[in-house]
Structures are given as C-alpha cells and as structure tokens.
Design brief:
about 550 residues, alpha+beta, PH-domain like, Rossmann fold, GI Alpha 1, domain 2-like, 3 domains, eight-stranded antiparallel sheet, six-stranded mixed sheet, 17 helices, about 40% helix
C-alpha cells in the first residue's frame, strides 16, 4: 500500500523516503504507484504528489493524494511519447536533493522529480522508459502543437523576405519504400501527377504485372510445383511470348530518374537456373513434353508484333488472358506467391493481378493507389519540392542499393533532417544485391551509420518503420526468430513492432540527437498524411528553435 502524504513540512523528507512504489498488474498492464516529490515549474518549491504510471498509457498522472485518484482528478499529466528519462543531479540554490530524475517531454518541457531511495529512483526511470516505448502521441498534443507551429511560422515570416527552405534527405536500403514517400508528397502537397507522369506509371504498372507473372512462372518451374494442365499450357505460351517481349522492349524512364526493377528472362532452353536470384541473364527451364521447340518458336514469331506494341498499346488481350489463367490457379495465389518472395517479387503484384481486368482496359489511367503501388529502382537522385504553410520543402531521394550509397555524401550539406525508411516486413528476406545478407539486419546496420554520422551532427532523424500492413500479415506465418534468434516475445504486432523499433532506437549513440519514430504504411494516403503532419511540426519546431536568438 502506498504511503499517504505527510502534511507537516518538517517531515517531508521522511515521508518521501518511506514511500516505496507499489507495483501490480491489471488487464491493461502493469501499474506503478508511489509518492514522489515534484519541483514546481512556476514556484520553485517541492510538492509531494502521488504518481501513477500505467504501462500502455500515454501519460504519467500525478495527484494531490489518493482521494483525488479515486475521483480521477489528476493534478497534472506528463506525456510519455518520445520522452527522455534519466538520473538528475540537483544541486541548485545550495539545496541538494538525492535520488532525482528528469523527464524531458517531446515538446521540450522538463519535470524534475525526487524519489525517496535509490531503488525507487531506478525503478521509476526504467518503468518510464518502458512505458515511453509503447506510448503514442495524442490527438490533443498534435493539434495544440500544430497550431503553435503555424503561429510561429507566421510570426517568423513577418521578419523575413524569403521563403525558408527545409531540406530533407531520404535514406534507407533498397525497396524500403522511399520513393513511395515521395509520391505521397506529390499527392498531398504538389497537386498530384502530370499527364506525362501518369503515362509513365501506366507503362510501369503494365511492366510490373508482366514481370511479376514472369517471376511466378519461374517459381513454379524452379520448385517443380504441380499445377493444373490448363495452367501449364498457359505458362508455356506466356514464357515463349515473354522471351520475345523482354528482348525487344525499350528502357522505361521518367526524367532519367528510374529504371525497371530486376526482371527475369524466360527462355525455352534446356539449361535450368542454378541461382536463387533473378537477373536479366537468368535462363529458365520451360521444356515440357506438351510443347515442342518448334511449336514454341512459332508462338514466339506470332507474338513478336504485339510485344513491340506493349509499351504504347498496353498488354495484348490474349496475353492478359494467359496471365489471368495462370493467376486463377489457387496454387499460384497461395504456395507459389509465397515462395516467389525468394526471388524478390514486388509486394504489389498480388494487388495488380487481382485488378487485371481494370488495368488492361484501353482507356486505363492509373489511380493514385496504382501509382503508389508501382515499383521501379531509383538510380541517381530525385529532388521533389513542395510548399506547406509558407515553407518550401525539398526532399532528396537517392537510391538505396549498396552501389548507389556512394552518392549520398554529396547531399549531406545543409540537411535539415534525415528521413530514414525501413521496411520492417523484410525480416525474412535477403538483399537483391547480396543473397546472403538479411534485409532488415542490413537496414539496422545502415541506420547505425546514418544516425551517428558526423556529417550532420545537428540534423534530426525521422525514422519511418514502413510496410506495417505487410508486416502484420507476415507475422501470422513467419517467426520473428528468422531474423532475431534471441526474440522471445509472442508474434503479436504490438510486441514484434516495438521490439524492432527499440532495436533501431538503440543504435543512437549521441544522447543530444533526437530520433522521432513512426510506424507507417506509405501506400495509405490518409494515415500517411497524419504522420507527415506530425513530422512537419517536429521539423519546423526544431528549425524555429534553432533560429531563436
């Protein structure tokens, strides 16, 4: 039972020392209660208060006494989201106090609290850190902060003659979703996509469909998966057409920024693939008794004219029928597509194949979600500008593959903040460029380097833990221990996602550098808009604070 506060000022220290926190569990999580002394923010005296910490809550609440707790009338609340808690040595005004700790909130406000014993101090610090790892930013806090930021920007602009520029460097490993973040910015803040861009993405969607089906075909052949006879016949015809199409199709680029993702090369040769990776030089063993080489050659010749027109006219009707026939096989939609992840099949292929009847229409124009789901490898550098609340944002997106990272150093100058994107669903996948390296482990290593790089010591780091929708689905069938053998928690999204988040946050070596983490689904415009609004406020607040004289 918690000790009640002593009303005599002479016995305050005794009461604090005697107060030990009580800890017990409820359906909502562990609760930590205890009387602690809090230093006032206005009148700098110490007041004994009953502090209550519920794991799973977004606040620590403190009360005058237990009677106020019973009526749910807290004296105050301390927000836990992204807060810092550490031991604090209080020696001001010749009045030293032992066993203090400081809680610094996300908004920069500090609470200095004094415990009664060393054990109590340690217990509270550790419990607050644990609770903070699960806490989320409240809507009230977001709204108040957003209004404050807008007012500060308006006040700041009255004293400046030019629009301030915020430079964001978008980093992460390949296929983490960085380019999707840029697409969302265009949708939300840059009037969407031009007609030229929409035509590019129309072609890219069709190419994603065709290449995705080619990987599924390869998976069937490589693993000897038994499919229905009509599926096998469709596979043979598609494979023959694909080898002609792939050999004749032109490069697909938009402003020299993108190149097609890794795609397979299907042939009817007798050599079988010996590597688990797919590259343009890969050969596939598609010889079957049902079709002779001469028959396949005849099919190739008859399809050649259509293959050269795909980029302009779209997927030929008879090819879309073959694709639909293969995809309609239940084995392809279950066992095959799961195994195809080994060959780096795009996450969006399933969505596109389910939407095939719409995508092949003559008047097809890609929707925003179609564009967000499209995949192409970023090569070089893409700079995207957009204006929000009288501030110009410049996002610099550079390729994430190992060969592209040497270009990053040229863009470190004048960086306001780093946006690091990590695809947490890739905990069981390997790199395209290195089949022995786990993607998520690679991302952790790269984040360590980025977060602690001396090139931008004053830049904030925004961490997007991306593709949570795919992560939730994958947790149902693939153990986290695939990537983290030491993981002992259950496979629930809350436990697994927070475990990964804490691994990333643990990489920070400079205590002065803030890392703001957010779980994201970059293809979900509505939820991403909320996330970026929060990120925007963080960045602008930090910039304005830095300019205050």
């Amino acid at each position: 039972m918690s000790t009640s506060p002593n009303n005599s000022s002479n016995s305050l220290a005794t009461a604090v020392a005697a107060s030990s926190p009580s800890q017990f569990s409820t359906a909502k999580g562990t609760i930590l209660r205890g009387y602690l002394s809090k230093k006032g923010h206005v009148i700098k005296n110490w007041k004994l208060r009953l502090f209550v910490l519920k794991i799973g809550s977004n606040y620590i609440e403190y009360y005058v006494d237990e009677s106020k707790e019973s009526t749910n009338s807290p004296r105050g609340k301390i927000p836990l989201y992204n807060c810092r808690c550490a031991e604090y040595v209080h020696t001001k005004n010749n009045n030293p106090r032992e066993y203090c700790f400081n809680i610094e909130t996300f908004e920069g406000k500090s609470w200095i609290i004094s415990a009664g014993t060393k054990d109590q101090q340690v217990q509270w610090i550790e419990s607050i850190k644990e609770a903070a790892s699960y806490a989320e930013e409240t809507d009230e806090s977001k709204l108040a902060k957003h209004k404050q930021i807008e007012k500060m920007i308006q006040d700041d602009m009255r004293h400046k003659s030019r629009v301030p520029i915020i430079k964001l460097l978008l980093l992460g490993t390949g296929e983490s979703g960085k380019s999707t973040v840029v697409k969302q910015m265009k949708i939300l803040h840059s009037k969407g996509f031009t007609d030229e861009e929409k035509d590019f993405y129309r072609r890219l969607v069709h190419r994603n469909v065709i290449d995705g089906m080619a990987i599924l075909v390869h998976t069937i052949q490589e693993h000897g998966i038994q499919v229905a006879p009509e599926t096998r016949a469709a596979i043979e015809q598609f494979a023959s057409w694909f080898q002609v199409y792939q050999a004749s199709r032109p490069s697909l680029r938009l402003s020299n920024n993108h190149s097609p993702m890794n795609t397979p090369k299907l042939t009817s040769s007798s050599s079988s693939i010996s590597s688990t990776s797919i590259s343009p030089n890969t050969s596939f063993n598609l010889n079957d008794a049902a079709a002779s080489s001469s028959e396949l050659g005849q099919l190739s010749t008859s399809f050649e004219a259509n293959a050269s027109l795909v980029e302009d006219k779209g997927i030929p009707t008879h090819i879309s029928e073959l694709i639909n026939k293969i995809w309609s096989d239940s084995i392809v939609q279950t066992d095959v597509i799961i195994k195809a992840q080994r060959y780096h099949i795009n996450d969006s292929v399933k969505y596109y194949l389910n939407e095939l009847s719409r995508l092949i229409k003559a008047d097809y124009t890609p929707t925003s979600f179609d564009i967000l789901s499209s995949r192409s490898q970023t090569t070089g550098v893409i700079e995207t500008d957009f204006k929000v609340a009288d501030v110009m944002f410049k996002i610099v997106d550079v390729g994430g593959q190992r060969g592209e990272r040497k270009k990053w150093i040229h863009f470190f100058e004048d960086v306001t903040a780093i946006v690091y994107v990590a695809a947490i669903n890739e905990y069981d996948q390997m790199l395209v460029e290195d089949g022995s390296a786990n993607r998520l482990q690679e991302s952790l290593t790269l984040f360590d380097q980025v977060c602690n790089d001396a090139s931008f010591p004053n830049s904030s780091v925004i961490l997007f833990l991306n593709k949570i929708d795919l992560f939730q689905e994958k947790l149902k069938r693939i153990s986290m221990q695939t990537c983290f053998p030491e993981y002992k928690e259950d496979q629930t999204y809350e436990r697994a996602s927070n475990y990964i988040k804490n691994l990333f946050l643990s990489k920070r070596k400079q205590s002065s550098k803030f890392v703001y983490s957010h779980f994201t689904c970059a293809t979900d415009t509505k939820s991403f808009e909320k996330v970026f609004s929060s990120v925007q406020d963080i960045i602008l607040s930090n910039v304005l604070d830095a300019t205050v004289v």
